[in-house]
Design brief:
Largest sheet: 6 strands, parallel
CATH architecture of the largest domain: 3-Layer(aba) Sandwich
Order of helices and strands: HHHHEHEHEHEEHEHEHEHEEHEE
Structural class: alpha/beta
Distance between the termini: 76 Å
Shape: elongated
Strand order of the largest sheet: 2-1-3-4-5-11
Number of helices: 12
Length: about 325
């Protein structure tokens, strides 16, 4: 079936069918209903790719993320998708697993689709790829990597400030032996969180003892990190995790090792994913507004549908400390 078949069944012109399907221009409600009925009866599906090649507006947005298994990335995707659907856009997502080569391939595949805009929620960004994105003729949003350019908006979270808040909070509770659990700490945004932790600990030395451990971005990675820390002989009274996803594994491993949280060890996460309120005990964390970020991405990529947000700017978000049951005063001291 094609557009002409629909027009013939509905007894209208192909231009009218096109206006109805694209939701543009004025069409009488009775005519619109007739066209949509014909579409259903004929089981017609428009060729979106052909429409774009013909010069029509592509109503697809691309999104590339580092780890779709981590609920943090999934939450941003769902928020962006919800906003997109409200305005009759679709979102195509690709997962890189923190691999730069897969990121490059994903971006090229996305560009081949000629999207209306592209969101990059990744940590493994190379400067050369940022230059390539700057030369694209579509709006781009990046999260916590690179610098703003003519068509690129950067949404940043003040992770350094968030980690400092968390470290000071634990220090005020009397914790003097702390550990940091992270992943991919050689990558820009993730290295900031580890560096902020190390800088805070160094500022409090010699009062503070600390260590850091790097594993995979997963609950299993969190479990393995704790095993390695305890096996080294270091006994932290508090463990700060780079995100909630790894903190879930940390909580499980501490319990399996016979340690109580927060009685023996306090644990903190970062991101405030929904699971943080359902762990036992509930997880102290830093809130990052993923729903707000998803909406900001859409308004930037499709400014005529949002509040007129312009590209080529930097948007800074401060995380908010969320104190729950997984932290408490240090009893060891």
């Amino acid at each position: 079936m094609n557009l002409e078949d629909v027009a013939k069944r509905a007894k209208v012109s192909t231009a009218t069918v096109s206006r109805v399907l694209n939701d543009v221009g004025l069409v009488k409600s009775s005519t619109r209903a007739r066209v949509l009925k014909a579409v259903r009866e004929l089981n017609y599906h428009p060729n979106l790719h052909a429409r774009t090649l013909a010069g029509g507006k592509n109503r697809t947005l691309g999104m590339v993320v580092s780890n779709l298994e981590n609920p943090f990335f999934l939450d941003i995707f769902r928020a962006l998708e919800a906003e997109a659907h409200r305005h009759k856009y679709e979102v195509v997502v690709a997962n890189t697993d923190y691999r730069p080569q897969r990121l490059l391939a994903s971006v090229h595949n996305m560009m081949g689709r000629r999207p209306a805009g592209l969101a990059m929620i990744v940590s493994e960004m190379e400067p050369s790829l940022m230059d390539e994105l700057a030369g694209a003729n579509i709006p781009v949003v990046v999260y916590d990597v690179g610098a703003t350019k003519p068509n690129i908006t950067n949404i940043r979270v003040n992770y350094g400030k968030g980690m400092e808040k968390m470290a000071r909070y634990l220090h005020d509770l009397g914790h003097r032996r702390m550990a940091f659990v992270g992943h991919h700490t050689s990558l820009g945004p993730l290295s900031v969180r580890k560096k902020s932790f190390v800088d805070m600990m160094a500022a409090l030395t010699p009062e503070i003892e600390f260590t850091t451990m790097v594993e995979t971005d997963s609950p299993a990675g969190g479990r393995q990190a704790v095993r390695r820390i305890l096996a080294s002989g270091f006994r932290p009274t508090a463990v700060m995790c780079v995100n909630d996803y790894m903190a879930i594994g940390v909580l499980r491993e501490l319990r399996d090792q016979g340690l109580s949280v927060p009685g023996d060890v306090s644990v903190t996460g970062f991101d405030n994913i929904s699971l943080a309120e359902f762990t036992i005990p509930t997880l102290t964390t830093a809130h990052i507004p993923r729903e707000k970020i998803g909406k900001l991405i859409f308004e930037t990529l499709v400014p005529e549908q949002g509040r007129g947000t312009e590209t080529s700017q930097e948007i800074l978000i401060d995380p908010v400390l969320m104190v729950r049951e997984s932290t408490g005063p240090c009893k060891a001291n």
